[in-house]
Amino acid sequence: KIEWSGDTSLLREFDAFRTLNLDLRKRTVQEEVEQARIEFETEKIALENQLLTQEKQLLQQSKTDQLIVFSLLGLLLLGICLVLLNRYRKEKAIRTDFELQNQSFLQKLQLFKQQQLSYEQLSKEQIELIENRKIPVADVIYISAHERGSIVQTVDGPKNHFYALKDWESTLADLGLFLRVHKSHILNLNHYQSRRYDKSTLVIELSNGQKIPVGRKYKEALIEQLDQSGSVIQS
Predict the structure, then answer these.
(1) With a threshold of 0.70, does the pTM exceed it?
(2) DSSP 3-state of 148
(3) Residue 211: CB partners within 8 Å, gap ≥ 6?
(4) Torsion angles phi and psi, residue 201, rounded to 5
(5) Best exposed site among 2, 26, 44, 192 by fewest CB in 10 Å?
(6) 59-62, long-range: CB < 8 A, 24+ apart
(7) What is the SS3 assignment for 40?
(8) What letter does residue 52 receive in the DSSP assignment?
(9) 3-class SS at 6?
(10) Hey, what CATH topology would domain 128-229 get?
């Protein structure tokens, strides 16, 4: 056994130094560990922030892409709707035009049948002339006043008659196709061709080319009758 017989102060100083050195090393290690932990946490937070930023960017990009897709789909649907609407309008216009044409054709056909029937009935009706001759009413183009009687203008030429125009009006009233248009003229509307104005006077052209002036007080009734009978009025 060796015993230290010298001064123990050096030994105590050595022990104190060694203890201090150990404490310093321990503290240094702890500080390094803490520093490493702080750096790790800092890098972790930075990485998390980076990931979060990238996730937000991806989400925003996804929303933008979805918005673009929805916008394109919306434009496509709008285009389809416009095409369908345009097609519907065209088909409706064509259908309406066809219905109007069909209706007009049916009206004209009905009018033609009525006129044909009226013509057949008129063909059976006859007017007795002074010479004891009879002519079909359908052949009468117009009747004009002449002296105390009248002149019956037919497809075969003029015929004299003792009737005055007022007598013809009452005689032909039931037939519905004779109309007085002037104080001197009664027309058969089946022989109407066209109309025109000579200054302020309405003039009617008949099937034989004869032109008859229309009196002012007869004008409105004549035009109304022509419209109802479906005659083509030419200005």
Answers:
(1) no
(2) coil
(3) 203, 204, 205
(4) -100, 130
(5) 2
(6) none
(7) helix
(8) H
(9) coil
(10) OB fold (Dihydrolipoamide Acetyltransferase, E2P) (2.40.50)
Rg (CA), the chain: 58
Two tokens, residue 216: 């002012």
For residues 235 and 226, what is the distance between their CA atoms, to the nearest angstrom? Answer: 13
Q: Tokens 């015993």, residue?
A: 3
Rounded CA gap, 145 and 186, in Å?
9
Q: How far apart are CA 108 and CA 230, in angstroms?
A: 8
Q: Which residues contact 152 (CB under 8 A, 6 or more apart)?
A: 127, 129, 135, 140, 143, 158, 159, 160, 161
Question: 3-class SS at 211?
Answer: strand
What is the maximum span of the chain, computed from C-alpha positions, in angstroms? 192
Q: CB-based contacts of 97: which residues, under 8 Å, 6+ apart?
A: none
CB 111 within 8 A of CB 230: yes
Query: Which of these, 145, 97, 141, 149, lies nearest to 122 by C-alpha position?
Result: 141
Q: In the predicted model, what is the mean pLDDT of residues 131-159?
A: 86
Burial of residue 225 (number of CB atoms within 10 Å: 0-12, 13-18, 19+): middle
Q: How confident is the model over 15-31, as pLDDT tens digits? A: 777 777 777 777 787 78
